[in-house]
Amino acid sequence: RQAEYRELRDRVAVSADGQRVTLLMNAGLLVDLPQLDQSGAEGIGLFRTELQFMIAATFPRAEAQERLYRSVLEAAGDRPVTFRTLDIGGDKVLPYFRNAPDEENPALGWRAVRLALDRPGLLRTQVRALLKAASGRQLRLMLPMITELAEIDQARRIIMREVKHLSRFGHGLPLALRLGAMLEVPSLLFDLDRLMASVDFVSIGSNDLFQFMHAADRGNALIGGRFDTLSPPFLRALRATAQAAERHGTPLTLCGEMAGRPIEALALVALGITSLSMSPAAIGPVKAAILKADIGALRSLITARLETGATDHDIHAAIREFVDTN
Ligand code: PEP
Ligand code: MG
Fold first, then answer.
1. 207 lines ligand 1 (CB under 6 A)
2. TM segments (predicted)?
């Protein structure tokens, strides 16, 4: 198998019926970077900047942040990199940073962009480091845990102030700045058109979106396999998102763990999500599945089941059977 995947490394992912799929990798530390070449990823779809903060003993200094971002961009060369601004709080704890009073529900608490907007100094330092590191090339910035669109505007104002500041002091700036939002809080599912119109790209954080839609803690083993990521309600949410992205011409990626599981990846592509970001080790298996797949037939299979009231674990089983027998 490993040898088979190595052979696929330099092939683009195109399904048997001609659907092109972009396969990106998730990363967060310097040690992940060699995987860019080894996995054949077309870029980094999710760079989790909080990992540098989580392994440090104190807040990393601006220079250390800039150095990491520069190394990432150098390793990526012409390939795109999407940097997510700090996503701390919830399941991502910084031992040296005590989040407000103890929270009863940290996943629903003071985290990610909420914390960034309340402590803009952290965001400003990080954005400045990113802008400097990306001088002369494109910078893609992505905001985690967006719940309402006003948060995007507030973050954008902070980011643009840093752009102005750097240009006033004669620093080189990125050639282009693209600002995206993660869709991982269900409120946005009911504001999809305005979301798609407000940003340059959207990335579905399916780990959190699934956790919040199902009220099921993503880290709790007792309920780990209980709900199906290919259940009709979740698939309808993903399909509506893909359709809204299409209406607005807004690039859409999905960067949660399900992107790296072949059966689920095929379902996502069939629903119209044709850019997937996953752990590097998953790229080979997902690419192998796509190359063999008839996406059009899978789309019909899923659509028919969504219309006829399939029950929760049906669709997963049906796709698996389809893949095994074709
Ligand atoms: C997600 O929530 O799906 C995601 C990609 O982000 P994280 O797993 O880092 O929360
Ligand atoms: Mg998340």
1. yes
2. none
